[in-house]
Design a protein that fits this description.
- The protein is an alpha+beta fold and about 400 residues long.
- Helix content is about 45%, strand content about 15%.
- The chain contains 15 helices and 10 strands.
- Strands 1-2-3 form a 3-stranded antiparallel beta sheet, covered by helices on one side. It has a 3-stranded antiparallel beta sheet with strand order 6-7-8. It has a two-stranded antiparallel sheet with strand order 4-5.
- Helix 3 runs antiparallel to helix 4.
Length: about 400
């Protein structure tokens, strides 16, 4: 690995100043990078890569040269630190990795576990949804808290069975972490470890043996009768009515709150919505509008709320719980969760656990009961695979009973 600087004489400006460019070479690989420095040809010392800058009345570029030499010095230090990074961590040199490191102001020669995790977050910001980045940061904070509490030194070489045992004890005894959240922590950690392995930051594969825990959980949804009652009820305030309409639109289309919250009039195209999915970034996602969905859009057409009132998820959740309480959805529902092997049963009124996510579950579960082809439901909701689709599906008991009575012969 070597570097040098060259003058771009063809880019000389009207004052005679010539831009300086960094050249990096390694095993036949050669690439250039412009830097924020310029010089007169006669003032360039190519033996030591700096600008000759005497403090004299004839040197009209003294102040600029001072700044330019400082910039050249910073570039030298950064490049040498990046070279040290490759050598210290025994990582194969690549142009992409060099340029990625070069873009950041701080370059450490040793790649620690959390240094790599910070880089993982940074590079993911260009291709992952905002919610995913928030999840990555949350997992990072959880791991930092774990390391501080247990004094377990997180490194690439010790994410193994011993880590798994200590981490499980911390999660279940100290933090009362539910199994499904524990599963998300492990899933994110393993994705990061695989990413860092692929980049050559380590060569340890024990992390692959760590297992995630994931329990099936209850899928809360509204029955067709409950949706009908909610949709037709006359609420006392416009705020509750608009929240009801937004929620029912989710029930009638099966979409996420984040997508419906951002739609505009231009996204309504005849019998379809057409938009880019915020979470997956799928473009030209088409959603068929049934009659009820069209009724809601028609209600707000040519109003300041068109095409549909924009309500934050927090406000929607609060208001739709009030709406469901008002129409009498107060039956007790018991939710079962596990912390390790410890079972926790917790009773709730149904109205208190209705959130925007329930709209999507309501659409899928009732669509299944109405015998709409599962493939059509998946296409309309944008579910990429069967596993993610099943997380929203609760087969209604009446449907199951009708199907199972086919054995009565």
């Amino acid at each position: 690995m070597n570097y040098s600087f060259e003058l771009r004489t063809s880019k000389k400006n009207k004052n005679g100043l010539i831009p300086i460019r960094l050249i990096v070479t390694h095993n036949g690989l050669r690439f250039r990078k412009s830097i924020a420095a310029k010089t007169l040809l006669e003032d360039w010392d190519k033996s030591d890569y700096h600008i000759i800058n005497p403090r004299s009345s004839t040197n009209k570029f003294y102040k600029q040269y001072k700044d330019f030499n400082e910039e050249i010095g910073l570039v030298k230090n950064k490049v040498e630190n990046i070279f040290d990074f490759f050598e210290y961590n025994n990582i194969p040199f690549t142009k992409n990795t060099f340029l990625e490191k070069y873009r950041h102001s701080d370059v450490h020669s040793k790649m620690s576990f959390f240094d790599a995790y910070e880089e993982y977050i940074r590079v993911s910001e260009f291709k992952r949804a905002k919610g995913t980045i928030i999840k990555y940061k949350s997992v990072r904070n959880f791991l930092i808290a774990f390391a501080d509490f247990t004094q377990y030194p997180l490194r690439f070489d010790n994410i193994n069975f011993r880590f798994e045992e200590i981490f499980m004890e911390y999660c279940f005894k100290e933090r009362n972490t539910l199994n499904n959240y524990y599963g998300k922590l492990i899933s994110t950690l393993k994705a990061f470890m695989q990413w860092s392995f692929d980049r050559g930051y380590h060569d340890h594969l024990d992390f692959k043996r760590i297992k995630r825990r994931e329990d099936d959980i209850e899928i809360i949804y509204l029955t067709l009768e409950e949706v009908k009652k909610l949709y037709e009820y006359k609420f006392p305030t416009p705020s509750l009515e608009r929240s009801r309409d937004f929620f029912c639109f989710l029930c009638f289309t099966g979409q996420r709150h984040s997508d419906i919250h951002q739609i505009k009039d231009a996204n309504v195209q005849g019998d379809y919505l057409n938009f880019t999915v915020k979470k997956t970034r799928e473009t030209n996602h088409q959603v068929f509008l049934n009659n009820k969905a069209k009724e809601i859009l028609s209600k707000y057409k040519d109003t300041k709320f068109a095409p549909i009132p924009k309500i934050t998820s927090q406000k929607l959740n609060k208001n739709i719980q009030r709406c469901c309480e008002e129409i009498g959805l107060t039956d007790e529902v018991v939710l079962t969760r596990f912390i390790g092997s410890k079972r926790i049963d917790q009773p709730f009124r149904k109205c208190d656990i209705i959130t925007s996510h329930v709209g999507r579950k309501t659409y899928i579960s009732n669509g299944y009961a109405l015998k709409i082809d599962e493939r059509v439901l998946r296409i309309n909701t944008g579910s990429k695979d069967e596993k993610s689709f099943k997380r929203y599906l609760n087969i209604p008991s009446e449907y199951k009973e009708n199907e199972l009575t086919k054995w009565n012969f």
